[in-house]
Amino acid sequence: MRIRTRRRAAAVIGGAVALAAPLVVAGGGTAHADSCNMTVGPYQRQVEQFLGRPVDGRQSAADCKAIKAFQATHGITPTAGYAGPLTWRTMNTMLEQRAAGNTPNRQGTCPTNLGRIACVDLTRQLSWVQDGGKLVYGPVPVRTGKDGTETRTGLKKIYYRNINHWSTIYDVAMPYAQFFDGGIAFHSVDKSMWNPPGSGGCVNMRSSDAKTYWNLLKNGDDVFVYGHKPGT
Asked: Signal peptide span per the entry (predicted)?
């Protein structure tokens, strides 16, 4: 989300967690039983495997119900149970996030010679805080800029923080906002981190993660953004 900034606030504390793998229960969620698309999708087998369904490449009523539940949970539309590109892209991103484990910077792309730094990998939609080569917190899933309002890459610095920021452009709350590139900030949202297409440019986070980032980081700390978000 791109916004104008106003006030200043600060706090410092520490913490660390691992990425929680999303749990999907076949047949669960809030999807309705009607209006199910019984067409076999191009990613039928991959989606069946991800959801723990029998991998036969055929769309059953149970398959459709499970796919719809996943789509409803993450705001994927149309929520019709079709195993299409967007649904599989979302699942594949989850798989890549799980594969990162506790070594998200295995390739050394995020600088390790700058001390404490917040890293943002657009490709895997992951962020973490490291100090040199030591992982301090994360990795955690994030939701970055959509096509047309992409989160800009490069080395940045946090320059303004506001724990209760309000966007005058989008008329929404931006809790735990930490700005590092013009109007682009870390901040919490209520949406699923796997909700497409993405943000207005900001790095959206779950509330608990945004709060921990608020306590770990301060003005002047480095932020490094790299990669390319799927679908942008």
From this structure: 1-26
Q: Give the pLDDT of residue 111.
A: 98
- How is residue 125 annotated by DSSP? T
Query: Tens digits of per-residue pLDDT, 6-21?
Result: 333 333 333 333 444 3
Name the band, by pLDDT with cuts 50, 70 and 90, for residue 169. confident
Q: What are the chain's domains?
A: 22-100 (no CATH), 104-226 (2.40.440.10)
End-to-end CA distance of the chain: 16
Residue with tokens 């600060």: 10
What pLDDT, on a 0 to 100 scale, did the predictor assign at position 167? Answer: 84
Annotation says 228 is catalytic: no
- The contacts of residue 148 (CB under 8 Å, 6+ apart) are none
Tell me which of 32, 36, 202, 228 is the catalytic residue: 202
Please indicate, yes or no, whether the overall pTM of this predicted structure exceeds 0.90: no
Give the type of residue at 208.
S
Helices 61-74, 85-100: axis angle to 10 degrees equals 70
202 annotated active-site: yes
Where do we find the tokens 């660390």?
A: 16
Catalytic residue among 74, 119, 165, 187, which?
187
Tally Cβ neighbours within 10 Å of residue 107: 8
Cα distance between residue 70 and residue 128, in whole Å:
26
Listed residue (92, 37, 93, 95) closest to 67, CA to CA: 37
The answer to whether 177 and 228 are in contact (CB under 8 A) is: no
